[in-house]
Amino acid sequence: MSESLYDAVGGDATFTRLAAGFYAQVRTDDILGPMYPEDDWEGAENRLKWFLAQYWGGPTTFNEQRGAPMLRRRHHEFPVDRAAAIRWLDLMENSLAQIDEETIPPAHRHAIWDHMQRVAAMLINQPDPGTPPARAH
């Protein structure tokens, strides 16, 4: 049996650092910050850590605590436009960059980043300003 990415990059400690680095930036971010309740920063950080750890082969804490991820459904109440998705990626990239390549080697870093780009794009639920509405056929 091959080692999971979770184990290969240092397990819980690495995903804790990634989530903490991300949320340290979100707290003061003008686009993403207002989407989070002021009284649940720790909960949000834990949920991100649990999700990422589980996705990459770690413990199933997310499912145990929250049920199936259902990312689009869980985020539908938040106005996620392209600017918000790009900002999410910017902050996540900053957090990922704080973790050295010895901990997260380039191949694993690429896999994580590719996944983050797909998730950010998938969560967009608002049109870009100036985009004409879709026409009914």
Describe the structure.
There is one protein chain. α2 packs across α6. The protein is 57% helix and 0% strand. The protein starts with a helix and ends in a 15-residue tail after the last helix. The chain has helices at residues 5-8, 12-26, 41-55, 61-66, 71-75, 82-97, 106-122. It has a single domain (5-123), classed as Globin-like (Orthogonal Bundle), CATH 1.10.490. The chain has 137 residues and is an all-alpha fold. The mean pLDDT is 91.
Number of domain units: 1
Uncertain runs: none
- Name the structural class: mainly alpha
Number of continuous helical runs: 7
End-to-end Cα distance: 51 Å
- Report the major sheet: none
CATH topology: Globin-like
The CATH homologous superfamily is called Globins
User: Beta fraction of the residues?
Assistant: under 5%
- For the residues shown, what is the average pLDDT? 91
> Regarding CATH, which class?
Mainly Alpha
- From N to C, what is the helix and strand string? HHHHHHH
Which radius of gyration do the C-alpha atoms yield? Answer: 16 Å
Summary tags:
mainly alpha; 137 residues; Globin-like
Q: Quick summary of this structure?
A:
The protein is built from seven helices and no strands. The chain is mainly alpha-helical and 137 residues long. The protein starts with a helix and ends in a 15-residue tail after the last helix.
Layout of secondary structure:
Layout: H1 5-8, H2 12-26, H3 41-55, H4 61-66, H5 71-75, H6 82-97, H7 106-122
